Fold:
Amino acid sequence: MKKTDFSKIYSYSKLKLFESCPQQYYFNYLDPEIAPIKKQFLKPRDYKVKGQAVHGAITLFYHLPKKKRTFDDLKKCLAQAWYSEKDPKKKMPLGGMGGFRDLKHERESYTESLEMLKNFFYIKEPDLKLFYIPTNKIQNSFCDYEEMIKPIDKKRYISGKFDRVDKLADNTLRIVDFKTGRKSSDQFQLTFYKLLAELNFNLPVKIVSFYYLNRKEVVDFDLSHTSKNSIKKKVGDKIKKIEDAWRFPPHFNGLCNHCDFLELCPARKIIKPKTKTI
Ligand code: SF4
Structure:
């Protein structure tokens, strides 16, 4: 691809967004006035800082030489990864820039992040063979997404980011996704990752693992019998639905209060009486 046309590239989260709220999808990717300046609408959120800091710390940790992968070093990685997308240069405490009410709130969030990293550190992985880890430029990781762009047919592309990919003893791959939120097992997400990895790495994906870091639990999904072509078909069908859409109605959902476009949403008046925190 010479000049990247990002409107033709679909990630798992982009496809999921269309399903959860077509109007939010429209604001994000299609609205000629809003989409190009959507970053201006992003509000600082404490849970985003926490999630990206835990993921960033793990990435930095894997970039350290093996001998330096101690818990103390992991703690240092967390301090490095604690930043706000709104103002990446701002040092701790991030305060309102990170969506924190006050210092106490930020300290609590930091402690919770550290707890998740403790859980990560004590998960036993004696035979770990890292095959892929994201860039250590954690504040500028769009290059990871760009590197993974692959066609699924003549005109559509998919991409996404992997937290970690391992090589197993039988020369197959295991994809690891670190979860910092609620438990979920979206079958489509699992298969999407498998397709993307197989297109990029040319090795079969046997397992996708979710590491729930707030409860120290690892759940493995065996995808060795799911075919690449069947996943391609499912992904293609979902993309076609978006391409064929001519209306993008708002779908109220439990996340409306966390939607960055709430103020612009045509359904705002209807949502307002149902919520208390707007
Ligand atoms: S506020 Fe709710 S309904 Fe409106 S765009 Fe956002 S998610 Fe969709």
About this structure: Residues 42-122 form one domain. Residues 103-121 form the longest helix (19 residues). The radius of gyration is 20 Å. Residues 21, 23-24, 250-253, 255-256, 259, 261-262, 265, 267, 271 surround iron/sulfur cluster (CB under 6 Å).
